Amino acid sequence: MGNIYGYCRISTSKQSIERQQRNIIKCYPAALLINEVYTGTKTYERKEFNSLLDKVVSGDTIVFDSVSRMSRNAEEGSKLYIDLFNKGVELVFLKEPHINTSTYKKALTSNIELTDTNLDFILEGINKYLLSLATQQILIAFNQSEKEVKDLQQRTKEGLVTAKLFGKQLGMKKGTKLITKKSIKSKKEITKYSKDFNGTLTDIDVIKILGISKNTYYKYKKELLLEEEL
């Protein structure tokens, strides 16, 4: 059995890396954590990640909290996934377990047994389809991650401009995130109390403390989680 590495990444020093660390250690207590703070957009700009890629060998495992921690670019991410798979490195994505390399390997090896009859023409087609489907799921996961990050960046930009110009909501474009004193305060308390960040409380307990609606709470929480994906 090879080494298990847990790769954690944040974009700026102002973000917290602890949530990713906790999630990985909870599932893989023996994982050696690799922490990285960077602001680049390409894999080659990540010093710690590149050092890890040079280090891993067949039988090793890399655990990510989510697919976006591996790559924010769909084309780059899916290519790197296949390269590491071919190298014999296991990849685990805690938030997207359906694209773990163990699942992809199963699609490669669990082919429908051929019969040495004309039926094999159909069975071979089914086997190829299953492999193609698994490969497509990998690309979809990276595409979705890339889209969420770009959407958040755009909403944040629009929200900051609106807040600066008006200080309140005035005919904002649908989907724009308005930044207010209330939202800033609420998000700060969510990161303080929620067990998904730096606290120990459940969602219900935090909602009671903040005194806000469930919809507002989960909206703020989703935005916080997405901000960590940048």
Descriptive report:
- The chain is α/β, with parallel strands linked by helices and 230 residues long.
- The chain folds into two domains: 4-144, Rossmann fold, CATH 3.40.50; 150-227.
- The chain has helices at residues 18-27, 47-55, 74-87, 101-109, 120-165, 181-193, 203-210, 214-227; strands at 4-10, 32-37, 61-64, 90-93.
- It has a four-stranded parallel β-sheet, with helices on both faces.
- Strand 3 (61-64), helix 3 (74-87) and strand 4 form a beta-alpha-beta unit.
- Helix 3 (74-87) crosses helix 5 and helix 4 packs antiparallel against helix 5 (120-165).
- The longest helix is centred in the middle third of the chain and has 46 residues, at 120-165.
- The mean pLDDT is 79.
Helix content: 40-55%
Radius of gyration: 21 Å
Indicate the low-confidence ranges by residue numbers: none
**Could you say how many structural domains there are in total?**
2
How many strands appear in the DSSP assignment?
4
Any idea what the CATH superfamily of the largest domain is called? Resolvase, N-terminal catalytic domain
Separation of termini?
A: 33 Å
CATH class categorisation of the largest domain: Alpha Beta
In terms of DSSP E residues, the strand content is 5-15%
